[in-house]
Write a structure and sequence with these properties.
- By secondary structure, the chain is an alpha+beta fold.
- Helices cover about 15% and strands about 20% of the residues.
- It has 4 helices and 11 strands.
- A 5-stranded mixed β-sheet has the order 1-4-5-10-11, with helices on one face.
- A hairpin with a 2-residue loop joins strand 2 and strand 3.
Length: about 220
Amino acid sequence: MTDSARDVREGDIYLYKLTCDNGGAPCVHHALLSLAICKPDIRKAANMGDWIIGFGGKSVPDLKDRLIYIAKVTSVEEDGAYYKDARYRGRPDRIYRFTNPGYEYIPRSRFHDKDDLAHDLGSPPHFERARVLLSDTFAYFGDNPGPALDGVRDIYEGLPRNFAKHHPPQARERLEAFIVSAFEQFGPGVHGKPTHGDSSMKCHSSEDEIVTIPKCSR
């Protein structure tokens, strides 16, 4: 287990449920995990040192009762820098480009379409959602069953539709133990492939409405 994964007592722990695990959110590419599209409320709120735990949505049979990923936020790109900095060129979730003074969708990009720009980046002129969370300390499981949820099952079952951040002390301790155990058991890095690698489901669908879009060639 890495030294960085031992400091789970620092920072907030964000929990949410994924209704789609297609490689877009989170996106793991070249040993870096990014959350650039979907979950704008978490992207706006989380800071360096915080932890994000993405569980499978209970309404999606092949995600239910599974941990999809755990990530420590190790870097934050503010004000659309993710779409301007050449270091991130070629990442699959960089589906928008900066065109001063705004942004535009890159045609035939995967995961989302042009109608999702406001949801992902916000509205002009401020584009308040153009904030991207990055992690080089993560464990991504995807289609791998991963660690059992026994110790946090009640927390998982009680998750709200959006996300949870504030946890009673006992629940917080169990979540910390869950993170430590997952890293000790599996280690950091990539342990599986996206569950929906060939799917056209949008990652920002709620558990009440699973939306699909036409598959793209890119």
